[in-house]
């Protein structure tokens, strides 16, 4: 589904001493089927933005368009349940929201709530546990007996079971160990490709944004600070540093190599092996000059 | 150096039906040492922290802190010596202001008022939060909250501080703040530090690393030696930082390295040496 924000502002507790402007005149477009990373510091407005995507919040000003759904300041969305079927949100630490007696019931809760037939729910159940790599043997276990990583997979399976077209991920790997993080991110990427999802990743990790996203939006103080392909955005070190964001470490290091040895390296998303080779060749070449 | 914390054949499980979380764990931590404990989710690293200050007790083996065995009837003596900072910055506050919050632990220990004021000021100064005395803790950023939590711990003058994934829920700026604070505190006060993490970039400055795997000590090493073991670490669900990965690629290309580099500067030095020898 295409998503667009047009001049969106959001104010918490307007006309009170606690008034807080979380989003300010924010505009951007997300094409159906793309993988977009939204990056910014705590307090930059990421969570507020995210809550518009499935109609938990309506803009104070401007308009949000998600497929055929329109969120506007004056009108409550009538078919908000339909929107929530299409936009699955994986919140931070989603395992905190598990509550059912068994893994199978927890995963089936969402689609059941949306009125899906038992047979359909059952069919999806097996699809989603395969997608999140949970063994069938866990289906009748209590979700609370599982490890942290497994609990998170159950929670994610519950979102996928609603068969969303848009998947919104809020720091999905926080608290996982390095292998858990990589497995989780690779899994989302596969789902993105296989199911043709529109994926929106809210993250602090420049590395993940660089590796997985095809478009990056940088937020600062509720406004759009920068936008572009990861390589576009992450080569603008100065601008990122101004809002205290770092560039991915590989780009940072290559910048230092270029300076120290007065050579030019171009980073186009190559693997680390290729980059190392390029550096070594350039250093060798430099000696003959 | 005398050992300050010692685990002797420690085994722990939550109940008899459940598998061992720790099995025959042995290690020592010295006074004035910074030890990082790393391991995958469920490897038992947080259980170690809880055993050190008597939040849990082992079924087998002994834990000695500052010459005292950790037991039900010694926990208060132990907790005078061991300060802990946990993962979630929102779960560690009791006071309505930063000052009250730091005062809480001192009041509990019946410290005299003048002494309390001195300790509150000096511990908040150690974490650079002395301008926030009257602020409400819940309105601070994640990094600031964790710094106040560290100050609260410092105020009781512990001889060891344990940070149990204290940076895991913070953004990169918050993480950097905490690492800076830890360094400053380590520099300024004579104490042992135990940092528990699975972020391998956070162990670079530690003196020693204990790697846990499935409830056992898998390896004890310096960060520098540890980072040579990419394949082994990956096989137990961990990883090496960027600098070590890059060094590894250079080795594959037959670039000789004098030392295992720990940071960008050392890696650049290695490249420089290689370049100037050609």
Give an overview in words:
The complex is a heterodimer of chains A (289) and B (278). Chain A has two domains: 242 residues, P-loop containing nucleotide triphosphate hydrolases (Rossmann fold); 42 residues, no CATH class. A six-stranded mixed beta sheet of chain A has the order 6-7-8-3-9-10, sandwiched between helices. A four-stranded antiparallel beta sheet of chain A has the order 2-1-4-5, with helices on one face. Chain A contains eleven helices and ten strands. In chain A, β1 and β2 form a beta hairpin. By secondary structure, chain A is an alpha/beta fold. In chain A, α3 packs across α4. Helices cover 41% and strands 21% of the residues of chain A. Chain B has a single domain, classed as Rossmann fold (3-Layer(aba) Sandwich), CATH 3.40.50.300. Chain B is α/β, with parallel strands linked by helices and 278 residues long. In chain B, the strands form two sheets. In chain B, strands 6-7-8-3-9-10 form a six-stranded mixed beta sheet, sandwiched between helices. In chain B, strands 2-1-4-5 form a four-stranded antiparallel beta sheet, covered by helices on one side. In chain B, β7, α6 and β8 form a beta-alpha-beta unit. The model of chain B has no long low-confidence stretch (mean pLDDT 91). Chain B contains ten helices and ten strands. In chain B, 38% of the residues lie in helices and 22% in strands. Chains A and B meet through α6, α10 and α11 of A and α6, α9 and α10 of B.
């Amino acid at each position: 589904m295409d998503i667009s924000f047009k001049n969106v502002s959001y104010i918490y507790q307007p006309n009170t001493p606690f008034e807080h402007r979380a989003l300010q005149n924010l505009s951007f477009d997300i094409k159906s089927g793309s993988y977009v990373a939204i990056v910014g510091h705590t307090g930059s407005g990421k969570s507020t933005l995210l809550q518009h995507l499935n109609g938990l919040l309506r803009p104070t000003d401007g308009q949000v368009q998600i497929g055929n759904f329109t969120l506007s300041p004056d009108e409550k969305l009538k078919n908000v349940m339909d929107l929530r079927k299409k936009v699955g949100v994986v919140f931070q630490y989603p395992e905190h929201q598990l509550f059912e007696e068994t893994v199978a019931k927890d995963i089936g809760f969402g689609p059941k709530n949306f009125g899906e037939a038992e047979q359909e729910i059952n069919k999806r159940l097996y699809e989603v546990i395969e997608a999140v790599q949970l063994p069938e043997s866990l289906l009748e276990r209590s979700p609370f007996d599982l490890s942290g990583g497994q609990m998170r997979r159950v929670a994610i399976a519950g979102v996928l079971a609603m068969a969303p077209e848009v998947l919104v991920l809020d720091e999905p790997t926080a608290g996982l160990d390095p292998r858990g993080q990589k497995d989780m991110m690779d899994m989302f990427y596969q789902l993105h490709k296989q199911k043709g999802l529109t994926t929106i990743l809210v993250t602090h990790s420049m590395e993940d944004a660089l590796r997985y996203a095809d478009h990056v939006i940088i937020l600062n103080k509720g406004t759009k600070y920068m936008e572009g392909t990861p390589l576009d955005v992450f080569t603008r070190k100065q601008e990122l540093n101004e809002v205290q964001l770092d560039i991915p470490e590989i780009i940072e290091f290559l910048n230092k190599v270029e300076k120290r040895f007065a050579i030019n390296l171009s980073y186009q998303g190559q693997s680390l092996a290729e980059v190392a080779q390029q550096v070594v060749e350039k250093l060798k070449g430099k000696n003959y000059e | 150096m005398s050992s300050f914390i010692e685990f002797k054949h420690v085994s722990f499980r939550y109940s008899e039906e459940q598998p061992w979380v720790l099995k025959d764990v042995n290690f020592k931590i010295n006074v004035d040492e910074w030890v990082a404990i790393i391991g995958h989710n469920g490897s038992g690293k947080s259980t170690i922290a809880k055993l050190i200050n008597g939040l849990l007790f082992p079924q087998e083996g002994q834990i000695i802190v500052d010459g005292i065995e950790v037991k039900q009837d010694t926990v208060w003596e132990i907790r005078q010596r061991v300060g802990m900072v946990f993962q979630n910055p929102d779960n560690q506050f009791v006071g309505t202001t930063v000052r009250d919050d730091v005062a809480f632990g001192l009041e509990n220990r019946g410290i005299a008022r003048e002494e309390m004021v001195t300790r509150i000021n000096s511990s908040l100064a150690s974490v650079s939060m002395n301008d926030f005395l009257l602020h409400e803790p819940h309105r601070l950023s994640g990094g600031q909250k964790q710094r106040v939590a560290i100050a609260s711990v410092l105020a009781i003058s512990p001889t060891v501080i344990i940070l149990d994934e204290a940076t895991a829920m913070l953004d990169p700026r918050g993480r950097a703040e905490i690492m800076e604070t830890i360094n400053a505190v380590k520099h300024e006060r004579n104490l042992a530090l135990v940092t528990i993490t699975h972020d391998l970039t956070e162990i670079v400055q530690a003196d020693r690393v204990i790697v846990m795997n499935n409830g056992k000590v898998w390896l004890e090493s310096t960060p520098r030696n540890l980072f040579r073991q990419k394949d082994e670490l990956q096989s137990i669900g961990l990883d090496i930082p960027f600098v070590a990965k890059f060094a590894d690629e250079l080795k594959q290309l037959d670039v000789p390295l004098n030392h295992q580099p720990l940071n960008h500067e050392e890696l650049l030095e290695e490249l420089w040496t290689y370049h100037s020898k050609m």
